[in-house]
Amino acid sequence: MAFVNLKNKEVQAKIIYYGPGRGGKTTNLEYIFSKFRQRIKSDMVSIKTHGDRTLFFDFLPFDIGKIMGYDVRIQLYTVPGQIKYNATRRLVLKGVDGVVFVADSQLNQRKKNLLSLKNLQENLAIYKKSIFKIPLVLQYNKRDLENEGVQIMSLEQMEKDLNSQLKVPSFGGSAVSGENVIPTLKRIISLTMTSLQKTLR
Ligand SMILES: Nc1nc2c(ncn2[C@@H]2O[C@H](COP(=O)(O)OP(=O)(O)OP(=O)(O)O)[C@@H](O)[C@H]2O)c(=O)[nH]1
Ligand SMILES: [Mg+2]
User: Which residues have a beta carbon within 5 Å of ligand 2, which is an ion?
Assistant: First the structure.
């Protein structure tokens, strides 16, 4: 649940970037931070192992202005994607309001995407949340690798694999070039705020 302060008219919403290890979650936040640096008052907090893998989480807070008279602060988090860090993923997921699932478009990562999405569903269930109800956007990341001669899956195949039941908004993109990073973010903020507005009424 989002943090709502009725007296000061403030809302804090927690949006989490989830997905397989090395899929590009941290890179999404780094791109967002670089684009909105003027509007983001604090630094991005990253807790990394050697080799740039996320050990605990990344954290990026920013204000998006007023919605229905409330000052809205968005908190972006990433989870560590490596399978062995599931306890940490669960911890970070506590109080989640919206999720961006960052899938890796490389053909050899197909199984990891599927496992990670299933893991998201299981971990949400621990907090009595349904993957079919939570605000969710899929990002098919690393589309740029096609130009490098790397074998990537078609968007149709990824839709079939990951989105045939969920039927949520999805974007092909590249966190490295920034392609569709901001549209992905805008979409999840919009879905999350629509869902939170129901609780503010
Ligand atoms: N070519 C390409 N590389 C990418 C893209 N996004 C991320 N990468 C690279 O993939 C590697 C892993 O990216 P991260 O953002 O650290 O991945 P992560 O999902 O945070 O990984 P974990 O923290 O281990 O869960 C890095 O070397 C990135 O530069 C992309 O869109 N295209
Ligand atoms: Mg990371």
Answer: 25-26, 54
pLDDT the model gives residue 46? 76
171 φ/ψ angles, rounded to the nearest 5 degrees: -135, 130
Residues with C-beta less than 6 Å from any ligand 1 atom? 19, 21-27, 52-54, 78, 80-82, 141-142, 144-145, 174-176
Give the containing element (helix H, strand E) for 30. Answer: helix 25-35
Own/partner contacts of 64-67, CB < 8 Å, gap of 24 or more, are: 64/189, 67/11, 67/193, 67/197
Ligand 1, pocket-test mutation among 115, 147, 176, most atoms within 8 A of CB: 176
Q: Which domains does the chain have, with CATH numbers?
A: 3-200 (3.40.50.300)
| Atom number, ligand 1, closest to the C-alpha of residue 23 | 19
- Mean pLDDT, the chain cut into blocks of 10 residues (201 residues total): 79 96 96 84 69 79 85 93 94 97 98 98 98 98 97 98 98 98 96 86 66
Quickly tell me which residue has 């969920």 as its tokens: 166
- Site to probe by mutation for ligand 1, drawn from 48, 52, 92 as the one with most ligand atoms within 8 Å of Cβ, is 52
Confidence (pLDDT) at 75: 94
The pLDDT value given to residue 51: 65
pLDDT of residue 92: 95
